[in-house]
Amino acid sequence: MLAGAVAAEHVGAGGESIEAPAIFDRDLGWIADADVLVAEVSVPSTGVGYEIATARYRHSIPVICLYRPAYTKRCSAMISGDRGIDLIEYTETTEMLSRLRSALAKYTTSAVGYPRRRTPA
Asked: Using an 8 Å Cβ cutoff, are 96 and 70 in contact?
C-alpha cells in the first residue's frame, strides 16, 4: 500500500492540513497493517527514519529502502549499516523497479505476487 499522503496531489510542500497527532496515528496504523515497508531514503527524513525503525523493531516488518546517490553524498549509516534492511541503490528508475520487484518477490507466496500475511507477535 502506498501512503496516500505521499502521492496525493492536494498535499503541497507544507504537508497535510490535518493535525499532527492524527497523521501520527494514521501512519502508525498503516505500518502495523503492512507486510513490507518500502521507503525512499535518498533525501534524509526524520519521519521516514522513525517509520523504518517502527516497522523493523516494533512490528518485525521487513524493510526495503531505495537510495539514489545523486541526491546525497551517502546513505545514512543507520540505514546502510542495518543488516536487516534490504537496501537498493540505483541511478535509473527502471533499474530500481526491476530490483524492487525482485526484492518484493522474497515476501510473496505465489507467482501472482500477493503478500504473505505476517502472524501477529
From this structure: no
Q: Is residue 118 packed enough to be buried (19+ CB in 10 Å), middle (13-18) or exposed (0-12)?
A: middle
pLDDT tens string 50-109: 999 999 999 999 999 999 999 888 999 999 999 999 999 999 999 999 999 999 999 876
In one letter, which amino acid is 32? A
Dist. CA 23–CA 18, nearest whole Å: 7
SS3 53: helix
Name the grid cell of 60. 518485525
Kindly report, residue by residue over 7-25, the tens digit of the pLDDT.
445 455 556 679 999 999 9
Distance CA 4, CA 11 (A): 10
- Whether the Cβ atoms of residue 113 and residue 100 lie closer than 8 Å to each other: no
Q: How many residues appear in the chain? A: 121
Against a cut of 0.70, is the pTM above it? yes
| Closest to 7 measured CA to CA, from 66, 16, 62, 44 | 16
